[in-house]
C-alpha cells in the first residue's frame, strides 16, 4: 500500500510540474487534498508504531489505509482520462516550455497608469541615456531589471521617447514579450514598428522568412529595439539572433524581472532599479492626488508622507493608493489617517492593478520554488529572517529536494533556491556578507500580501490575524499566529504540520505556555513538523513536545534544561532553545546523542554536552550536525569533537566562571576537518587565549571577542597559517603591545574581510603584499589608531574601507588613499566614514 501511495504521489507531481493542460490544473486542489489525507494516515500509523500504541503484523491492522489508497487511485484515473482525451496536452517531460505556466493576462499596466509613474526616475534616465548614446560602436545590449511594479517599463518608455534618444537613432522598435511568448508575434510586432504594415500583410511568410526580413530591415540604419518584459533565458536565446551588429552604435534595451536574464544578456550594461526614497514617494503621491500645479493642504503633508512611506518605495502601490485618495476619499486628515491604517485592505481590493501584476512572477516560478516563496508569509511585516533559520525551516517543511546522484547537501540546494528567488526579485536580501552571501532576507509588503492571499486560496497556510468562527474551522496544515486571539487554539486542526507563533497562545491554563501534562495542548498535534514559538515560553520545558515524533524543527524559550525525553524526537533536525536566565548552567541530556538527524543546535548561553557513553543502547555520535551555537568551552575535547565530525560552524560563548577552572586548557580543533566558521566570545577579559588555539586548515571565518594579553606577533603567526581564511574579526581585544607590525613573510593570502573593533591599537605597519586579496576593511571605535597604512592604496582587490568613530587622522589617511587610487586610475574605492562627533 505504501509503494502504491508513493508511486501515485510521484505521478501527480510529474503531471503538475510538466503539463499546461488547464483541465488538469482545475484538479490541482483535489490532488492536494487527497495526497494530504494520505500523508495524514501514513504519519499517524508511524506515530502509533513508534509510541507502541498500535502494532501487529498483517494487513488487518492497517485497513484504515485502504480508503485513502482508493481515493488516490480514483483521482489518478481522472487525471489519466483527461490526458488520454487530449493528445496535444500530453506531458512535456523534455524540459521547460518557452511559454509561461500562467494563463493570466498581459502583465502590463494601463497606458495611463504607466505614463503617470514618472517621478524619481531622472537619475535612472540619465544613466540609461548615457549608455544608449555611448561611444561604443558595437551592438550593446542594455538591461533594466527589478521587481514587478518598480517602473522598469516606465523608465524604458521615458528613454524611448526622450528627445536626445529620438535624435540619435534612426529606427525605433518596441516589442512586448510577457509570459505568453510567441516567436512569430514578436517578429510581426517588430515589422509593424519598422514598416507600419499590418500583420495580415505577412500571412504568406513563415517564421524563418519573417526573421530574415527583420534582420535585413535593421542592417542599414542605427536602431533602438526595446524588448519589454522578458521572462526567460531561453526566450532571449531564441530572439537575440535577429538583431544584426553593424558597428554603428545600435542598441537593444531589455526590461526583465529576472536578474539571471539580465546577466545572460549583458553583464556590463545592466541597470538595476531601486525603490523610490521617501521624498520621491511623497512627491509622486502628492502630484497624482492634487496635480502638478495645485498645492496640497499643509495638514495632510505628515500623514501623506506616512502613507507614502508605507508603500515602501514601489511606484505601483503609490499610484494605486493615490488613485484611491483622489477618487473616493475626502481630503481630510481623518480620512487619510484611516487610509494609512487600512493600506493592506486597499491594496487587496485592487487585485488586477497590484497583486495581479506581482502574481505573474509567482505563477512563472517552477513548482519547487512556490512553497519556499509562500512560506515568507509566515513572518510578520518587515520581519528580517536570518538565512540559516529560513533554510532550516525549508528543510524541515520538506520543501527542499535533492536530485538522484547529486552530491549537494540539503543546505546547499536550499541556498540555490534562495538565490533563485532573490534573482527573480521576489525575496529581498536585507543583509549581505562581504562576498555577496545573504545573511538576512525579507519580502516587500505587497508581495507578502500576495503570499497571504495565494496561501489562503490554495490552502497552503493560514495566518491568524482575526478570530476564527466555529463555523469556519480552518482546514489548513500550516499556521502562523501573528496576533493574540483568545480561544482560537481550540480550532487549530489536529493534522497541522507547522505552527509559527509570534504572539502568546491563549491556552486553557493561562495566557502563555506552561508545563503541560501528557494530554496538554501540543499532544494532539501528532503530525507537527515545525514548532517555532518566538515569544517567551515560561516554566519548565513542556515534556509533551517530546511526544511529537514527526517534529523536525523546534524553537522554544524556557528556564530549565532540555529533558532526556528529547531523544524520542528521532526526526529532529533543528533545536533552538533560548533561555530566560543565564545565572545557572544548562546541561544537555546524555540521550541527545541519539538524535542522529540533528543538523543545527542553538542554545542560549553556554551548555554542557556530556561525553557519549559507549553502550549498545546509544548512538554515539551526531554525524549530520553542522552548527553548534552555545557549546561550553570545557566540552571542546577531541572525544566530543570526534562524535560530531561534520561540524561546519562552532560558536563558543565563554563564561568567566568556566575559564577559572580551565585557564590553561588548549583548544584543539584540528580534528574538525570541515569546520568553516569559528566564533569565540569572552564574557570578561582574561589571559591570552590565542596561542592555545589549534585551528583546522578548513577554517574560512574567524571572530574573536574580548581577548586580551596577547601580542600582535601572535595574531600574525597564528592566522597566516590558515590558508583558507577569508574573514577575520577582532572585537574589544586588548593586546600587550599597541603596534601591529607585519613582516614581508606575514601574508594573509585568502583574507577578503578584516574587521578591527574597539582595539587598543595605536600603530599599524603593513604593506599591500600582506593582504593581496583584501576586499573590505572595517574599523570601529579604534580611537588610538592614527592612520591606515598608505601602501593599502596598491591593494588592487580593495573595494571599500569603512571607519566608524575613528580618529580624524585615520580618516584623513583613508581620504588620501582614495585620492591616490583615483589619480593612478585604479578601480573605484568606496569610502564610508561614520562619526558620532560629526553630528554634534
TrEMBL record:
Localization (cell): Cytoplasm; Membrane
Topology in membrane: Peripheral membrane protein
Disease resistance protein winged helix domain mapped to chain residues: 379-450
Domain NB-ARC: 126-291
Pfam families: LRR_14 (PF23598), NB-ARC (PF00931), WHD_DRP (PF23559)
Keyword Iron (UniProt): no
Record key words, sorted: ATP-binding, Coiled coil, Cytoplasm, Hypersensitive response, Leucine-rich repeat, Membrane, Nucleotide-binding, Plant defense, Repeat
Domain (Disease resistance R13L4/SHOC-2-like LRR): residue spans on this chain: 522-782
InterPro entries found in the cross-reference section: Apaf_helical, Disease_R_plants, LRR_dom_sf, LRR_R13L4/SHOC2-like, NB-ARC, P-loop_NTPase, WH-like_DNA-bd_sf, WHD_DRP
Keyword Transferase: no
Protein role: Confers resistance to late blight (Phytophthora infestans) races carrying the avirulence gene Avr1. Resistance proteins guard the plant against pathogens that contain an appropriate avirulence protein via an indirect interaction with this avirulence protein. That triggers a defense system including the hypersensitive response, which restricts the pathogen growth.
Family the UniProt entry places it in: Belongs to the disease resistance NB-LRR family.
Protein name: Uncharacterized protein
Source organism: Solanum tuberosum (Potato)
